[in-house]
Task: inverse folding
């Protein structure tokens, strides 16, 4: 599992995370939510091994701060909030970066399968910069999936750490991504994803973690977190759960 205990993190003199305690389990999707500046991305970057911290972050028993980068690369794949590349890679070359970071290096068939999984089949030789923003986002997801292609290895579950993966996607591709994450979790892997959409998170997450000002305010299944008083206090505006204006059309993805 991913176990976070008494986590503190500062950048310069600014303290960003304050004594966080949190567990995420393989076989589940854990959604981290909260207003801008609440510490969501900082928490994910600490879990990825990108930021120094005090306290403990243990992934499958490995303390993140004390684990070699090559071992971390075999345990978890990380999708940044706004990934970019400076070179004119083709999609094949971009996804191969993920392959070589993980433990399934040199298996080129994974490149093709990962691109097909995100809806980019037949585009392996297209330059990354020739794609739309949403297509580029899906290409980077394919890179991360190639790195963590199998949900489990001989040493146990593997993890996807995703920072706002839905941000550039239309509703159809959001649903396709949800299917990928659910399948990965069903196969025994762990998913931790930063989200902004409360409604979507409530539908897809097994556990929601609500943050504010660098602290965890509420954590648990969606019904325990999606409460009027909790959300209104965290977001600083009146919010009601389960109520919509009867006169306005509204759309909810029909996940099954």
Result:
């Amino acid at each position: 599992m991913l176990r976070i205990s008494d986590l503190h993190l500062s950048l310069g003199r600014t303290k960003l995370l304050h004594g966080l305690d949190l567990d995420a389990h393989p076989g589940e999707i854990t959604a981290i939510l909260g207003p801008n500046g609440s510490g969501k991305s900082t928490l994910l970057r600490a879990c990825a091994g990108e930021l120094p911290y005090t306290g403990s972050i243990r992934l499958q028993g490995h303390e993140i701060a004390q684990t070699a980068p090559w071992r971390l690369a075999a345990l978890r794949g990380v999708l940044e909030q706004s990934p970019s590349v400076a070179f004119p890679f083709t999609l094949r070359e971009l996804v191969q970066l993920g392959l070589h970071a993980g433990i399934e290096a040199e298996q080129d068939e994974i490149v093709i399968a990962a691109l097909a999984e995100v809806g980019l089949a037949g585009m392996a030789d297209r330059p990354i910069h020739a794609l739309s923003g949403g297509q580029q986002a899906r290409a980077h997801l394919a890179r991360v999936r190639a790195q963590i292609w199998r949900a489990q290895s001989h040493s146990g579950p593997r993890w996807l750490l995703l920072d706002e993966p839905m941000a550039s996607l239309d509703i159809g591709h959001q649903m396709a991504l949800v299917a990928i994450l659910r399948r990965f979790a069903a196969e025994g892997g762990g998913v931790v994803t930063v989200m902004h959409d409360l409604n979507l998170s409530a539908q897809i997450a097994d556990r929601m973690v609500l943050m504010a000002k660098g602290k965890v305010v509420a954590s648990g299944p969606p019904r325990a977190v999606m409460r009027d008083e909790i959300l209104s206090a965290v977001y600083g505006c009146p919010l009601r759960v389960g109520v919509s204006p009867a006169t306005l059309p509204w759309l909810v993805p029909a996940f099954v």
